[in-house]
Amino acid sequence: xxxxxxxxxxxFLKALSSEEKQEKSATLNIQLFSKxxxxxxxxxxxxxxxxxxxxxNKVLELPSPQxxxxxxxxxxxxxxxxxxxxxETMGAIIQNAEVIDQEKARQEAEVKEKARQEAEAKKARQEAEAKEKARQEAEAKKARQEAAAKEKAxQEAAAKEKARQEAAAKEKARQEAAAKEKARQEAEAKKARQEAAAKEKARQEAAAKEKAxQEAAAKEKARQEAAAKEKARQEAAAKEKARQEAAAKEKARQEAAAKEKAxQEAAAKEKAxQEAAAKEKARQEAAAKEKAxQEAxAKEKARQEAAAKEKARQEAAAKEKAxQEALKxxxxxxxxxxxxKEQTKLSPTEPIASTNQNFCVIAGKEYCIKIMAVYESxxxxxxxxxxxxxCTDAITHKFLNEKNLKNMHLIRVEEIENDQLxxxxxxxxxxxxxxxxxxxxxxxxxxxxxxxxxxxxDGDIYFFSNPASIFxxxxxxxxxxxxxxxLDWVEQKYGKYQAGIIGFRKDEIGxxxxxxxxxxxxxxxxxVESNGRFGDQKYLDQLxxxxxxxxxxxxxxxxxxxxNIIYNNDFNVSLQGDKVFINNxxxxxxxxxxxxxxxSDKYDLWSMHQLNIQKEIMNYIYVPYLDxxxxxxxxxxxxxxxIIKATLSTKDFIQAKTKxxxxxxxxxxxxxxxxxxxxxxxxxxxxxxxxAMYHSLSRQIDNFHIWICTMDSETHDVLSNLNLKNxxxxxxxxxxxxxxxxxxxxxxxxxxxxxxKATLLEHLLSTHADIDHLFYCDSDLYFFSNPLSVIDDFxxxxxxxxxxxxxxxxxxFHGQYQAGFIGFKNERNSRKILNWWxxxxxxxxxxxxxxxxxxxxxxxxxxxIPEIFDNIKVNQNPGIxxxxxNLILNNTDQEVTxxxxxxxxxxxxxIFFHFGSLLILNENEFDLWKLEKVxxxxxxxxxxxxxxxxxxxxxxxxxSNNAQFFANLPSGYIAKNPYSIVSL
Length: 984
Fold this sequence. Notes:
Elements: H1 7-15, H2 18-23, E1 25-32, E2 35-42, H3 43-55, H4 72-216, H5 236-299, H6 301-332, E3 358-363, H7 368-381, E4 386-391, H8 394-403, E5 408-412, H9 419-425, H10 430-448, E6 453-457, E7 461-463, H11 468-474, E8 479-483, H12 488-494, E9 497-505, H13 508-523, H14 543-546, E10 550-552, H15 562-566, E11 573-576, E12 579-582, E13 585-586, E14 589-591, E15 596-599, E16 602-604, H16 615-636, H17 641-647, E17 659-661, H18 664-669, E18 676-682, H19 687-700, E19 704-710, H20 713-722, E20 727-731, H21 738-746, H22 749-767, E21 773-777, E22 781-783, H23 789-794, E23 799-802, H24 808-814, E24 821-825, H25 828-843, H26 865-868, E25 872-875, H27 884-887, E26 896-899, E27 902-905, E28 908-909, E29 912-914, E30 919-920, E31 925-927, H28 938-958, E32 978-980
C-alpha cells in the first residue's frame, strides 16, 4: 500500500521547532509498528528529495498495519524491508546534500538579488493565481452544480419513467384481471341463459302435453294456472327499450306541459293587459258618453225632443211592421191544428199581476221543456209572479200559448228585433244571438209594462224556495248582480258576475245601464273570449264601476251553480225539513248549466268534463229537477213530438261526460259519494276463492256492485242459491257469439277465461249506460281494507293499469301490467282501447309465451296500451294488487306489519292481495305457490295468508267440502310450497 503522501511534508514542517527551522536541520523519527527509524536531514533537501522521489516514482512503500494479525516473524521481515529502503534513501540524500553544498554559496548570493524580484513576482503571481483559482473554483462550482442538476434531472426522469412503467404494469394487470372477470361473468350468463332456455323449452313441452291431454279429455282440468315462471334473463334489452320509450314519451309529455304552462302564463299576462286596456276604454267611453250627454242636454234639448218624437213614431212603425211580419210568418208556417186545420186560437192577453216578482226568459223549441220546469218551480214557490217568455221561434210560441199558463206572458222575438238585431242575427250563432237579445228584452219589458223592475233568468234556472228573498235583498237598487264565486282566473276571463240572473230597475240608472249593455252587445258578443270580452257577461264587470246604486248579492242560495258549490268552494249543503240550505242560506235558485238531455231518463249533468257530484247535491238538488224533466218529457212525447225531438240531443250517450241514467242501480249509487263497480269470472275451481273475495269486499264497504260471469251451471246454481247482496249473475252464454263458441273449443278453460275478459267488460259497459266506470278483478283477490281510493285514483283517466312490480324476467315474459285488476271508463276513448284489447285476445290468448307476437295470455298485450293510447293511469301503490311476484319473488326489503288491525306494506295500507297460483288441495291443505319453491316470511304468512286461508276453509265447510271445488290435479302431485291450516 502506498500511503506516503504530500501532506506528510506539510504536517512535518508545521511540527518543526523555531530552532530547527532556523538551522533547517531536523531528525525524522518514524515509528513503524515496534521498530523506530531515525533519519537526520536538511529540511530543504528533504522536500526536494521527496518531490524528486515522487517524480521518479520512488516512494517509501510501507505495508498497512495489521497489528492484531501480524506475528513477530512478519513484523521482523517488514522491518528489514524498511531498513533496506531507508538505507537506499539515505544514500540518495547524502549524495544530493554534497551537490547542494557546492551550489549553496552561489545560490545564496543570487537569492538576495532574486528575493526582491521574486517577492514582487510572487505577489503578482499569487494575485494572478488567486484570481485564476477563484475563476477555476467558480467554474468548478458551476460545473459541479450543472452536473448535479443534470444528475438530479436524470434521476427524476428515471423515477418518472419507473413510476410510469409501474403504473402501466398495474393497469395491464388490472385489465387482465377485468378481462378474466368479464369472461367469467359472460360464461356464467351464457350458462344461465342456456339453463333458462332449457327450462323454458321443458316447460313449453310440458304445457303442450298437458294441453293435448286437456283437449282429449272432456272433463279434464277445469282451470289451469300460468305455466312455470322463468328466472333467467332473456332479451333484457327489449324491456330496457320499452322503459326508454316510456321515459321518452313522459319527457315529451312534460315538455308539452311546460310549453302549455308557458302559453297559459303568456295568455294570462296578455289578458291582464287587455283587461287594463278595456277598463281604460270603458272609463273613456263613459266619460265621453257623459260629456256628450251634458252637451246634448245643454245645447240640443229641442232637437232631442223632436228626435224622441220621431223615434217614437219609428218604433211604433217598427212594432207594426214586426207584427205584420210575425203574422205573415205564422201564416207561412201554417200554424194550425193538425187534425182540425183551424188556426190556433191565441190565448187572451194575460193580465199583469201586481207584484215585484217579475221574471223574464228567452226560449227556443229546444228549451221548451226547461221553461216549463222554470214555470212550475215559480208556481210551486211563489203566490204572485209574472214570467215573460221571449219566443225565438213560432213552434215555441205555439206550444207555450196552448198551455195557457197563468202569469206567463209570451213575446214574439220579432216584436223586439230592430235593424241592428236583425243584422247581427245573420252573423252570430244561436247562443251568441240570445245573449245579444237579453238586454233588448229587459229594456222592452221595462218600457212596455207598468212594472218597476224585472229579473232576467236563464232557461235552465230552477227555483227551490220563494224568490221573494231575491227581491228583498235587491231592495231599491237600480241594478242587481249575482257573483260567480268561481276561481280567480275564471272570473278574470269570463267575468265576475253571472249573466244568468241579473236585474234592472226602471229608473234613470237602470235604463242607462241597460242601454250601455245593449250597445256593447251589438258591438261584439262572442262565445270565444277576446280582448277582455266574453259573450254578454264580461261587460257586467264595468257596471259597479260606471254606476251607483248597484246591489251585489251575498246570498249563497241565489244563482247557486256547479262552479260555486260542486267545486271551488267548500260550502255545506244540507236538507232541513223540506228546504235545501247552502251553509245558512236557503237555496232559492239553482243554475243547471251545461245539462244535456239524451232521453227522458238519460242526462249529461256537466257536459264540460267528468264531474263528481256530492251525494247531498245529487239527491237534494239534481234528482228533483231531473225527475221533473223526465215527467215533462213523458207527458209531452206523444202530443208534441217535435218539441221532444228538439229537446233531446242526437249524439251518442257514450259521449256524455257526467252520465246519469234514472235506473234502480243509479238511484242506489247516488246515495254515496263513491260507488265501486266490479266484474269477475267464476268457475268451479275458483268458486271458493271468488266467494272469499266477495266476502272480504262486503266486509269493507257496502257501496259496491259486482257482475259475476259464471262459467258453468254448478257455479251458477251455488251463487243463485246464496242470493248475494249487490251481485248480478251473468251466465257466460249470455254474451257468447259464434266466434267465441268456436274459440272455446280450441282453448283451455284458463285461456278461454282470459279471452272473454275484454268481451265481458265491453258487454257490461254497452248494456249499462248508467255506470261510468268498471273494474275487472280476478276471483283470487282478497280485500284487506277499503278500496274506494282506487276510484279517486282513477280520476278522469280512460284506463286504469296496475304495475306488476315483478322481476325483469317475469315482466319480459308476462308483461309489466297485471290483467288481474284493470279498469275502464264508459267513454269513447276507453271503449276504443277496450275494443283493441278484445281483438288481440280473440286472435291469440295462450298460456305459452309467443316470442314472435310478444304475447302471453291476455296480459302481455297491456304493455302496448300506454305506448299506443293516451290518458292512461298507471298505479304504483304497493298496497294495491300486492302479490307473490312483487312481495315474495321480488321483495326489495319490503316490510309487512300489522298496525291497529290493518296490514301495511312498508308505510302503505294493504288494499288487496292477489293470491295467484295458489292451489286448494283439500279443506286443510294448500300449495301457496305452485310454480317453484319460495321463501315466504313469517309476517306475510301470519298477516296475509292465514286470514285468507281461514276464510277459504270456512267457505269450504259451508259447501260441505265438495271436492269439485278443489284444484283439479294429476295423481301424485307434490306441492312446491305446502301449507296446512289444521291448527288455525
